[in-house]
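for the recovery benchmark. tokens below, seq after
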């Protein structure tokens, strides 16, 4: 990733922070973005240690004007953009009969519209060889009870495939990764019963780490994945692979 310039959204913690650190270590110039005016202490510390590799910028991914300002900054400072990681995301855990249109709209605005606006703003800065990675969820590969979150991540899959199809002729790759239960601030508030049940459905028998997701994002951004586009890549310890068969198998032990 030497001298490549990459934007990571939702970079203040969790997977976004891990992606920022890993990409910077690999030699990329990383524009780490998040909703707050000031970066998290972890990003601030990393930027001090890597002043030429990590720059923090405030970004509300739901605002086209904010994306336009970021694109101008990148053009002025770097001249081009080689990678975009649409990592920012939110959830609401209401089930089918409790979910409201407002829940659906709020989650979709960040998880889907944010990714669309990011691609639209950044594509004029990209040339052949550039790569976009949209961060989905295992909820986009199977049924999942939080209605708004699940719907948004399935929509993000569709957006990813449409973008990959359209941008392939320009040599720009678009892929999505779908994490399972990863130890992040978002999952820290999950019901313990949900956590236990998820681990029971995961063949590797454990939760994942942000660094394990970051490694896959790194691969998809890099020239090593030069012939990979339009892919939905699970990073879920096998959770989405068995269609519920694991529970049946375990019950028969």
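predicted aa per position
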């Amino acid at each position: 990733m030497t001298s490549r310039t990459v934007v990571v959204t939702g970079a203040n913690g969790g997977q976004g922070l891990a992606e920022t650190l890993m990409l910077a270590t690999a030699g990329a110039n990383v524009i780490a973005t998040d909703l707050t005016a000031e970066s998290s202490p972890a990003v601030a510390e990393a930027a001090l240690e890597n002043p030429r590799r990590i720059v923090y910028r405030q970004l509300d991914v739901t605002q086209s004007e904010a994306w336009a300002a970021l694109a101008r900054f990148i053009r002025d400072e770097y001249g081009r953009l080689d990678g975009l990681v649409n990592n920012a995301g939110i959830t609401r855990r209401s089930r089918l009969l409790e979910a409201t249109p407002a829940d659906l709209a709020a989650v979709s605005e960040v998880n889907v519209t944010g990714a669309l606006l990011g691609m639209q703003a950044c594509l004029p800065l990209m040339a052949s060889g550039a790569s976009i990675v949209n961060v989905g969820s295992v909820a986009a590969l199977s049924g999942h009870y939080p209605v708004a979150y699940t719907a948004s991540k399935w929509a993000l899959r569709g957006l990813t495939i449409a973008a990959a199809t359209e941008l392939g002729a320009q040599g720009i790759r678009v892929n999505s990764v779908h994490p399972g239960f990863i130890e992040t601030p978002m999952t820290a508030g999950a019901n313990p019963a949900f956590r236990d049940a998820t681990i029971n459905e995961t063949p590797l028998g454990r939760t994942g780490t942000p660094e394990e997701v970051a490694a896959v994002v790194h691969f998809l951004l890099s020239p090593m994945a030069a012939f990979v586009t339009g892919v939905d890549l699970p990073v879920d310890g096998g959770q989405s692979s068995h269609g519920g068969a694991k529970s049946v198998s375990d019950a028969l032990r």
